Protein 1
Amino acid sequence: MYSVLDLFSGIGCFSKGLEATSHFETKLFCEIDEDCRNVLKKHWNNIDIDMDITTLNPIGNFDIICGGFPCQDISTSGKQIGIKGSKSSLWKQFKRIINEKEPKYAIIENVQNIKNRGLEEVL
């Protein structure tokens, strides 16, 4: 069984998909949106949900860290400020946690326009 840390969890789609294979178990969520946290609690009532990625210091090791950091500054629907915008710059917190925890795998999701608005910095 692979352990999962789900960051920028939303309503838990990464975890739901991974767990559907019966090879993964989510150990911790991190999600700031209250409505999303309520959905997570409904489906994973025994798993902790941290609210603030900037102060998150997860205990233990994780085989997989997954998530989709905020896209508002990157998306063609927004102002396209880029990866350094106040919301999309949270990818640095994602990177910090990956570097600290050194998982076997990291799954990172974002909008297609990231290739024009900061992908080289993320990679």
Protein 2
Amino acid sequence: RFIHQAKPREAQAHCTMALTVKSTDDHALLNAEHELWATTFSYIKSMALKSALDLRLADAIHHHGGAATLPQIAARVTVHPSKIPCLRRLMRTLTVSGVFSVVQQQDVVVPAASVSNGTCNGGVAAEPLYALTPVSRLLVGSRNLVSIITMLLSPNFVTSFLGIGAWFEHSLPDPCLFTQAHGEALWTMADRDATFDALINDAMVSDSSFIMDIAIRECGEVFQGIGSLMDVGGGLGAAAQAISGAFPSLECTVMDLDHVVAKAPAGTDVNYVVGDMFESVPPADAVFLKVRT
């Protein structure tokens, strides 16, 4: 009987190929695990941003002309001295996510408790100089988006998304995620909770004040030739006020629920009426509805 025995070189080639295949499989598995972990912990970016809003880190950097070291930032925010190294890690996370950037290193004198990395010699450390980016510049100034981002990252909104899996188990029509999580609709909660209502109103004003300036500049022609406009669900009227300011001859009216209209500002060129857009809309030449997609 003839039995083939692999030659040493042939056997070595087979082993090399097997190891290569195994190595490729392991590499793919490690890459997959990396993607899995990255997706799992992606919420950390949002929570880091929330921390930046809570601590007003962008304001601290803006105070120093748009760029500041960690000690300068720490001096402007409420952080316990023992947490300075943790603040450095937070800034690193916010830098990686693009909220801030590092423009250069700067030698500064810092307390020993503040130095967790970098070159330190006799209290002198090479500190990163953190700068505002186009993203964080939206968090400072009169047209900032702090209020709406604060609302979207608030517990009432974030916890709603924890029930997406359960939501899919029920047939339509089904309560939205917010109602499923809290047992009541968003506007019902706002009607009974003054703090939550203020959070929503501030968020809507923040968003409208920012986006309407751009919308009028880029698409202002759509408002020309209109005599009257009804802004349904217009909140406190920030969008309607922007339109009225750009087109004084246009009669703008805001329609919203009674508890919203009750807080509408006085002394504007905008009219306010109580109503529910899901029931009826008062007549006007055009109906305006701001929708985020």
